[in-house]
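Rotation project, supervised by the postdoc (A.L.). Task for the rotation student: set up a whole-complex structure prediction and record inputs and outputs verbatim in this book. Inputs entered:
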Amino acid sequence: MKNPAPAIFPPNGIGDARPTNQAVLDWVHEIAALTEPENIFWCDGSDRENEFLIAESLKQNVLIKLNQKKVPHSYLHRSDPNDVARVEQFTFVCTPTKEEAGPTNNWSEPKETYAKLRALLKGAMRGRTMFVIPYMMGPPDSPLTKIGFEITDSKYVVLNMRIMTRMGEIAVKRLGNDPNAEWNRGTHSLLDINPERRFICHFPQDNTIISVGSGYGGNVLLSKKCLALRIGSYLARKQAWLAEHMLILGVESPEGNKHYVAAAFPSACGKTNFAMLIPPKHFEGWKVTTVGDDIAWMQVRDGRLYAINPENGYFGVVPGTSYKSNPNAMQAISHDTLYTNVALADDGDAWWEGKDGDPPQHAIDWRGNDWTPASKEKAAHPNSRFTTPMRDNPALDPDVEKGEGVPISAIIFGGRRSDTVPLVYESFNWPHGVYLGATMASETTAAATGAVGRVRRDPMAMLPFCGYNIGDYFQHWLDMGKRLTNPPLIFNVNWFRKGVNGQFLWPGFGENMRVLKWIIDRCDGTGGALKSPIGWLPSPHDLDLVELDIDHKCVAEILGIDHEEWQRELAAHKEFFDSLGGVMPEQLLEQREQLAARFME
Ligand code: OXD
Ligand code: MN
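Outputs recorded:
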């Protein structure tokens, strides 16, 4: 080590979950020698440590205190205006060959990339504190649970990771001292938040992530998109399980018949709302409970698929969240929450577009500027976020900590599509279901930088998150099906279809319970359906629409298949498959042909 060992900070014993595994210690010292921090802070995730870091963050304006009477223990963080979303164009999968990363990932050669990142990290933490965060993804007694360490020079990252993961001693203990144990190395440095020097790099072969130049959640909470999905999906293929961008929910009838479903929707398409759904009055006695709102890790046991949520909190999109759209989320975020890039009302409360009640007459917007309802700009950034512990969700499922996971009866794919795709339909079998996932598309949202509202193929909602060749990923899905003697049924949903006048045809939110009920009925073998070229479709009377104020024409329209639109859709599937340059498994190409042929029948 070239430099003298940095001092341990703070000296009063806060922050003391020091790893005991020599491999981890060696890595930490190597990064410290490179980045030359003033201090090393070994995070333990304790309340005392958290209070200390909040106090420091308030002093340094990293956090702003919200009105503690209105939102107790809650704070606002404003990120740099050039750093407000995931940056897919600067995200790299650094496998030894380009083919391993595949056609949907940015690839960069590992050796060169390490060298480039080392040059950027050299001396990057001078005068700063280096935090070492031990964390665990998954319940303590799950065979799927993984350990990670994140090194960061951002207090905001530490505060968020404490909510999003099981952090501290529990992770250190679980890892133990085996020098060959599997653990993820994550290094993050803010550098100078310069988009020109912003790189989110994954080295799946080394179980390593290096992220520089950003302070935004999805780029820097390395547990989430980087480990749980990109590295996770790579490990899942090697180890025969699935790491997916899916919520997990439980749905229980008044008679106590309970099913779990997992659902993949692209970012900012309502996964959190669906996972926390409150059934409408007509469904009195039905209960929906949340296991997870963003990520599912699933394994095969006794021929069934079982899912765990590797996370411990929610990093959700704030705008549009209200007592109407998501009362459970509103309760969860009414205290102990970190808000990022929302507006600050004059009474010290957090405010955002779509919150219940009238907008404030004056507020400070997410950039720190004066805002009034007459302003042209949004008060809260469209991708502003809450970070809140899952234990504060009133609808948390009682089996969320169960190590073996929850048995999955149905998998749902869904996107934001104004046309073509009906409200819900069911695949004929597993390979057809994989085809539905592989051809999923959605209009883009503010969760990633770039144009909003453009239809893009986003297979299994994993386009930005699959850590290896997408063709191999599809094959992995097909292979997993062969190991399932009791596979989940696979569905596709679209809450966002619009009518001729551009209005949404379906009310969404709690009313999605009606679709969920049909899905459960299909799992129980009681739901009716009509065979169509695209799959099993409910007819209007197969859906329970009692007490729903909806025009019958709208129901027919939203369940309809327009043959012309589907010819275009089939062409778009082909175009997408072709764009992947020959990596598509034969079985999925055949599925496309069968779909085209069914339209000819
Ligand atoms: C997220 C995302 O933050 O998908 O969950 O962008
Ligand atoms: Mn997500």
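Student's summary: The chain has a mean pLDDT of 95.
Supervisor addendum: Residues 223-239 form the longest helix (17 residues).
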